[in-house]
Amino acid sequence: MALEIITAEQRLAEKRGHKIVVCGASGVGKTTLARTLNPETTLFMDLEAGDAAIEGFPIPVVRPQTWGECRDLACYIGGPNPSLSEDQPYSQAHYDYVCQTLGDPEVYQKQYDTIFIDSITVAGRLCFSWSQQQPESRSDRTGKLDSRAAYGLHGREMMSWLTHLQHIRQKNVIFVGILDETTDDYGRKQFALQIEGSKTGRELPGIVDEVITMAVIGGDNGPYRAFVCDALNEFGYPAKDRSGRLNTIEEPHLGKLIAKMSSNQDEKSLTFIDPNTQHSSEGEIANA
Description:
With 288 residues, this protein is an alpha/beta fold. It is built from eight helices and twelve strands. It starts with 7 loop residues before the first helix and ends with a strand.
């Protein structure tokens, strides 16, 4: 099959979903954000068994309990990866298997525009637990657990899962995660996504389009919850905006946020500062 060239007109006409990580402290209201999405076109992946925040909200839920089920669901929704061999997850053989097990995937393909995953923190725990049980995580000499091998397998598995979900081009995929806050020896606050292993936390921002911190911010009229969306924010929160359409502070409403990222409005401008003269010049955002 010849490699198809997609014209600019075709690319601009394509429906494109957004891949978003929303991180924040426990209790800030991350799960409740599912209420700001259309329940008829959103699938809630409940990994935390903590759906009390959406009690009474008419949204369909799926509850995978093992890492194998997480992989199956990603393959089922995202389809097969033609570059993989038949013995690998997300291959055509894996896709055929999950279709036989779960039924016709057309229901998922047509009905759901958004997959809300609560949470990536728990997905990491399920993946690490599975990784520890695999033969390659055991020492050939003693048969005991080799932690380095287990973490290596865990990192590869998580990146494969996230990359497969990222390539579901037409759907929004929203990962919710817990944000850890620590203080270094100099009293400076540092933030990191709570997830097993360093590889996933380090490479995840390069996979998704948006990294957003949901935080409580102090204001003149008292504290309020908000999305922090720009890497250059005064709070030091992790953030990234590949769309180039978001302000540093946005309303904590996913439906409105996705609509804004999908709009045809012009991209905002960045102000570049010359450290020698302190003069600024306007420039357009170069999206990552």
